[in-house]
Amino acid sequence: MNVLATGGRTSLWVSLGAVVLAVGAYLSLAVGVVPIPLSDMLSPDERQWMLLSQVRIPRLVAVLLSGAALAVAGLIMQRVTQNSFVSPSTSGTVEAAVLGILVATLLVPGISLLGKMVVAIVVAVAGTMIFLQLLQRIRHRDPIVVALVGLMYGGVLSAITVFIAYQRDLLQLLEIWTTGSFSAVMSGQYEPLYAVLAVGVLGYVFADRFTVVGMGREFATNLGVSYLRILYTALIILSVMTAVVVVVVGAIPFLGLIVPNVVSMFMGDHVRRTLPVTALAGAGFVLLCDVIGRTVRFPYEIPVATIAGVLGAGVFVWLILRAARRPGATR
Amino acid sequence: MIDIKSVSHSYFDGAPKVLDDVAIDFPPGQVTALVGANGAGKSTLLSAMSRLLVPGSGQVLLDGVDVTKAAPTVVAKRMAVLRQDNRISARLSVVDLVRFGRFPYSSGRLSPECHEIVERALEYVDMTPMRDCFLDELSGGQRQRAFIAMVLAQDTDYILLDEPLNNLDMRHAAAIMQLLRRAADDLGRTVILVLHDINVAASYCDRIVAMRDGRVVIDGSPDEVMRAEVLSEVFGMQIPVHRVSGQLLAMHWAPLPAPALQAV
Amino acid sequence: MTAVSDRASEILGLHPATGTSVTERERLRSIRRTAVILGLLCAGFAAAYLLWDVKGSWSYALDLRSRQLASLVVVGAAVGASSLVFQTIAGSRILTPGVMGFDSLYVLIQTVIVSVLGPSALQLMGVPERFILNTALLAGFGLLLFRWLFRAHSRNLFVLVLVGIVVGSFFTSLATFASRMLSPDDYLTLQTVLFASFTTVDVQLLGVTAAVAVLGMAALVPLLRRLDVVDLGKDAATGLGLDYHRIVTITLVVVTVLVATSTALVGPMLFLGLLVANLARQIVPTHRHTVLVPVAGAVGVLATVGGQFLVTHVFALNTTLSVVVNLVGGLYFLYLLLKAVRL
After folding, report:
1. Candidates A139, A160, A316; nearest CB to C166
2. What angle do CA B87, B91, B92 make, to 5 degrees?
């Protein structure tokens, strides 16, 4: 298979994805209590422009960025651990970020969005580090076992969070944070998500080094890659991405797990090539969920997390069964 | 009599056959060994015979009745089977385990006669002093003997054992083989065992069935099977066979070099 | 063949009729002692639950508390018995109906019924009929799900657990989705139908679930000795003449019925069964289900009644039983998992 052919295949996928995204984006902007047809979208009147600029466009941007962020975070985690079932939702990262928000709110009532983000990032980093330590101690490197341990660890963190929230009567707020929804996104609220772009570029630059780190400490040192520094960089990048999304939007389950896995099924594992596609695919998946959530029971809205939970869980089960069927997999 | 009629089996569609059109029978009162290399199909055949496995095609008849169709308890009273992998997680003592052997008769409620049979079985395998120890406290060999006792307590005409001598030290391995020999000679029981040591088979068994790649390669007396050319076909090794003190001995630990490759 | 030597018989102290040795009899005595202590603890906590720190009208408090106590007892016993028995047929100490997503399935079925039949139809049905319908559907689907999983992956414990957890999450999301599809009025009806509020227990529901739970546990009784054999593994059980498939199926149906009763009363209790079943096996070192199942039931009652007592009086209701159970149970589950993968 010559390089041109692979390059050609990649750009085929990318262009296909772009088309799908464009259609989805249009729908996202057009659909709503006040429908805006395509003709008006290109030259909107004042009222329509208000709606577009204050609500619809921010919402679209938030959707795309969140999807891309979580998908890329998942990809980075999988590269660094060499394990296909590690993701922000199966490593306690999301749950740690939520705990961080709770802690921030308790310590400084009325804390700003930025403050919440910072605390969430710190707690997410700590939580994920604990998970990586757990990984070191278990004998099985089997993705299924790792996902299981990660889910349970996340469950324990979540139980602690609920426990505290219950004590301080913050349960309803907790519910809002943990159910990812874009309904409250509007101009002035969602800007932190742009941080994801900067971090994402960083992730792309470091992508190959993440793969090297995934091969182990000795391997990395042998190749002149500073193991700890790159590991922590990965940790911070994925924690920032996860925490920012959780703070602005809430938790969207399974996204970081299924999107990178499905993309690598079609495109292989070469990170430089798959990272942009994964980002697009993640954005597309969340866009799909968002559009479904807004149209299926119009004019009411079903949160993205619920739709993603249904679709994501289904795909996850399929991935699990596929992984288990491989000979030599879990005993 | 156990009659195996054209039994074939593969683990999933398209996989190589692990049993390939096997057709033999086991008349009562004999001790028969199933031998062969790993993967030859011996354990699978034993499983099919004891209805633990339903073969893809073919039939296994126990005294004329299809083993998979007969009532489970009826079969259990006529045939007992011991598999190779026995891992029990329950909190069982040795005597608890052996008592299970009476289940087909008692359904859990044991009569004084059952108790006597259980204690006798424990004595046969020399486990009476350890009867109240829990299985996870025992060595591999002691556990193995406990399982053999359970099979003995089941008191059946047909006894099927898959590598029963695994983990046993020499003394106990010899004792078990002598016990099985007596069961056949004195009580008319039919014993079919999978053995990996061909010499044990030759010493104790009336008949040896050798398998390779799911097929029966040879079925005969120890004298007929314990020959270099036969063993080389079964095991793929050049094994020298000698007669020592009237016993046939295959020196499988010191095989002869394989014939030199022909130059192209 | 010789009979057991008299000397050996004398040393072991073998009893002629029961065939038990001195050691065995001592162990039985110890188990009996444990059972008695357990019974006393249950009675003690039950009494405490009813009588401790009553403020205001005694008759009102007793009426309310006795209903709560009754539902706690039903839940505890049903969860304990069903989880222990499920572990036996599943062949693992890590699996329980909760972990496999059975209770989430119950919630989903409830939601789908409301969506499909509409709230008015549901209100015409009495509480008992609704419960029976839910339970029947749960038994049907649960059986299919379980059989499919086990057929495909009978040796693969971790796959089962992971799929169970993800499927449970899937059911919960699907239930949320279905509930959001309802109109706001229907949604409100669903909320009232979904779970009895624990603080004000619907007497009808309590009556039905208690009756069904008792029936379910009675149905287990003839199976108990055969479950001892199932515990030996599929091959050994088949070799001993057990109709393995039939026993497992019947047991599974009973388990789903018991799960339905507890979920109908208090909702999904993810890890309660895991904690209770494993604790029961720790405190009575026996393989006999005629002992294990009642003990698991008693431990379950102790967990729910004792737990709720602690939540009410020690934590001053600043949390719920399910939160505490999930926290403790989640940690325990993680511990079990790590133990299993480290060895």
Report:
1. A316
2. 75
